[in-house]
Amino acid sequence: MFKADRLFLLIVTFLIFHSSVAQNNTNSPYTRFGYGEIVDVNSSEQRAMGGVAIGMRNGSSINPSNPASYSVVDSTTFMFDVGFTGLLSNFSAPNGRKTSFNSNLEYINMQLPITKWLGFSAGMLPYSFSGYNFYDTDSIQIPDNSSTDTYAKYTRGYNGSGGISQIYSGFGVKFLKHFSVGVNAYYMFGNVNNTRTLTFDTESFSASQSIQDNVISVNSFRLRYGLQYFQTLKENHDLSIGVIFENKSPLNGQFIQYNVAIPSDTITYNQAFETPLTIGTGVNYLYNNKLSLSADFMLQQWNKALFFGKTDSLSNRTKIALGAEYIPNPRGNKYTDRIRYRVGLNLSDPYYKINGNNLNKNFGISFGIGLPLRTSSTMVNAAIEYGKVGEKSLFREDYFKLTFNATFNENWFFKRKL
How many CB atoms are located within 10 Å of the residue 391 CB? Predict the structure, then answer.
């Protein structure tokens, strides 16, 4: 049976997370485009391995990337996972540099068994983040009757905030001994805010500042389907292969524009927005329960998804991820024998265009560690990732992302015998 104190802890954690979803976990000007930075939600374990997840099937961690993985949960085990991130970014452009740090509670989820062949998972995840704040200055000539030219200085400011969050629940069903199929249902909500300000440093204008706030408001549902095949090839050799699929679906987004000063009004547009068709496949090979090797490939067809009723501002996004994990001795008596060491890398395409042009690929390389607690099956994971986004000729971000999560893995449904 559920224990009241643990259930109370879950509810409190969920409320804390809900209060933090509007906080930014980025400070990149590239989040000005599209819906902001699209988040591939991975645990520290997966992120340390480059973000591989589609083919992974592990009874000691939660994998919402492929709902087919839920059926691997032990029939007496309840799992709860909470993840945090910290992001240190260095931005470089032809006219200067800037460094920033952001941190956030990123996700919470849980997983429990329904039967020996059916698992259930639910939680709250980010879909996108938007966060930036920069400005530039210039001047214009003011016509007058004097022989001396008069100029007015002005500042253009750009600010972004918000993002899209998603609550999910899903099932994974095991069948025919070596197959599992699953589905996730997502409720998506939130606002992406992009604000532009124009401020004149002069008294020659009746209004010295104008503000335009553009808001994309989201309230929608979507589905993800997953399939996994798993087989022991021979003694100490295990293989699992996974696929995921999401159909293109309406995002039910609404665009609202607030204008302050010149002139002051509010305009609501019923624009067409869509999420892209998404397909992915992954493979995981496990040797002697010590060495795990994984690879993922994913494609999101953003170029066919409507954004403001058109398909000309977004482009296809592909992602390739490779990862490895090594455990010296999973059943060793020494604590150091059971520590998990991880490494990975990934390449991905930006899903937005700038001035009609595609950008170079994003790159990331990661390392991590998994520390089991001595008194329980709980695992504490940490990962650090170095990556780059953008181009030096425009704007480049070099970042270090620290991800930390704890997976509480306990026998909540075990009935003790007297």
Answer: 11
Compute, in degrees rounded to 10, the torsion defined by CA atoms 132, 308, 360, 94.
Answer: -40
pLDDT along the chain (418 residues), means of 10: 46 48 64 90 88 92 94 81 90 81 88 92 93 79 63 83 94 95 96 88 63 90 97 92 96 86 74 93 96 97 93 93 95 90 96 86 95 81 93 84 85 52
Which amino acid makes up residue 3? K
CA 356 and chain centroid, separation: 25
CA distance 173 to 179: 8
In sequence order, the 6+-apart residues with CB closer than 8 A to the CB of 390 are 30, 359, 360, 396, 397
Q: What is the DSSP letter of 303?
A: G
Q: Which of 339, 405, 371 is nearest to 64 (CA)?
A: 405
Alpha helices in 81-192 (DSSP H): none
Helix residue ranges, H only, 73-187: none
Separation in Å, CA 88 to CA 28, 36, 405: 11, 18, 18
Single pTM value for the model:
0.86
